[in-house]
């Protein structure tokens, strides 16, 4: 406990799934959390689950002006942030043959342009911080492997992977106290993965114990790594990409 004492975090897509799990894990380790979501009610629920050390805000991550406002509201509530989790996302399954331009642009708008706007605002805000800061971008195994039914989603997450490294190197070159890393989960037991369009089924993933090959991960499996990468314990880690995948990347094809 207390690994994030004194830290202030912004978590996007915090109304459910990974964003909610990350927000709660951060608060348990002493951080104050600004939980944002396109659905403001769910963001408020997440903040309510944490208590006085959290606030929920409405945020559409594709809106440039709203990013500035969220950082300003965070500073008003708690102070200048030290952590940004770019987690907001959506998936609209489609192959290269049937993906519409509208679907492609929508997913890249949220998960690539939204991450760009968040990283830019975070660097501008955090570069003069007197604490070590951390940006964590949620990418996906789809950025590391081919997933034919999710061509636009994979494109967006692949862009996040590459952009993360450019952000990290810029901060190192400028001697800013900011690290930037990407996480690459495989299937995690969240509402987005459980939706009918994606097709994940089966029993709910337990919080503890071994997960069988091909099973879904628990949101805490991602949240726990986020805690480490957000803390000063990982001060020598930047520009990294970290699979959270139960060996999926190296699983032999049957």
UniProtKB/TrEMBL annotation:
Stored Gene3D superfamilies: NAD(P)-binding Rossmann-like Domain
A GO MF term: oxidoreductase activity, acting on the CH-OH group of donors, NAD or NADP as acceptor
Family note: Belongs to the short-chain dehydrogenases/reductases (SDR) family.
Residues of the signal peptide: none
A Pfam short name: adh_short_C2
PROSITE patterns xrefs: ADH_SHORT
Name listed for the protein in its UniProt record: SDR family oxidoreductase
């Amino acid at each position: 406990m207390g690994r994030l004492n004194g830290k202030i975090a912004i978590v996007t897509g915090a109304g459910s799934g990974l964003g909610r799990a990350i927000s709660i894990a951060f608060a348990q380790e002493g951080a104050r959390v600004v939980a944002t979501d396109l659905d403001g009610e769910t963001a408020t629920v997440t903040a309510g689950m944490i208590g006085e050390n959290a606030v929920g805000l409405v945020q559409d991550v594709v809106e440039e002006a709203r990013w500035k406002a969220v950082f300003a509201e965070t500073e008003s509530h708690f102070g200048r942030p030290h952590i940004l989790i770019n987690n907001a996302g959506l998936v609209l399954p489609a192959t290269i043959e049937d993906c519409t331009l509208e679907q492609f642009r929508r997913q890249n708008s949220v998960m690539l342009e939204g991450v760009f706007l968040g990283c830019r605002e975070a660097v501008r805000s955090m570069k003069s911080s007197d604490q070590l800061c951390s940006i964590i971008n949620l990418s996906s195994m789809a950025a590391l492997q081919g997933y034919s039914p999710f061509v636009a989603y994979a494109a967006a997450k692949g862009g996040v992977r590459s952009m993360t490294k450019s952000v990290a190197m810029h901060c190192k070159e400028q001697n800013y106290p900011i690290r930037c890393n990407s996480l690459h989960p495989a299937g995690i037991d969240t509402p987005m993965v459980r939706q009918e369009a994606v097709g994940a089924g089966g029993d709910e993933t337990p919080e503890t114990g071994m997960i069988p090959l091909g099973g879904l991960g628990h949101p805490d499996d991602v949240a726990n790594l986020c805690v480490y990468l957000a803390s000063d314990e990982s001060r020598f880690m930047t520009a990294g990409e970290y699979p959270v995948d139960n060996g999926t990347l190296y699983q032999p094809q049957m």
